[in-house]
Task: structure prediction
Amino acid sequence: MKRLSRYRRHRAAGPFLLIAALLAIGTTFNVASATVKESITPMARTVAIEEGKEIFLKGCSSCHGLNAEGGAIAPSLIGVGAASVDFQVGTGRMPMADMSTQAMRKAPVYNAEETAALAEYVASLAPGPAIPTDAMLNYERDGSTAEGGELFRNNCAMCHNFAGQGGALTQGKYAPTLMGVEPKYIYESLITGPQSMPVFSDKTITPAEKLSLIKWIKAAEKEPNLGGATMGRIGPVTEGLVAWILGLGLLIAIAVWLTTKAR
Result:
């Protein structure tokens, strides 16, 4: 004990303990990162990139260029990241026949494996937003419905309707409904900004706040329609206006019919 006490008072004891602590923290971080990292080998990634390149050359290069550099009718894909490809292809928006119109959500052309290969290929061209992992999408545990509602009203409601039902934009464009959209695709749309949507980086809306947004949208999906027909959930004024117009129209029609019969 005396020897230990003597070493503890040594001039080099402080720096030595600091270096040892830093090494221990670094080792722990590396081990923890290795356990959650995707279990894909460099060889498997290389195979996926080659497969994705083949799919790209067959189905995408006619619009986006042989090297994804873009063209007259389609933008460059260099730097858009895997998340953008996963969103556009996974939701069936791409590929599309007419690039002059807004891409609509439809049944995907490529399956999950082909979409993942395409995403790997585009991601290999230049750095860009990555596909969120399952650990990043645990909105039920990490999200706040109240915070998500406030974020939605401040950032999304002006385009997507205050209830996430979608709405019309300028020049024939529209903001699609968010009902029934997978959490992964909501997250990807936030970090990639597809079409008319702005990009919400992690500095604008943090990852935790993105999860709160998703949690609110999922809560809005389950909300019952206690007032009858929703009319796009614009509100009770719309429902009352429709009822008034239909009711008044029916009364006018009856009055005209009675007048005609009286003659």
About this structure: The first helix runs from residue 2 to 8. Residues 87 and 185 are 6 Å apart (CA to CA). The first strand starts at residue 167 and ends at 168.
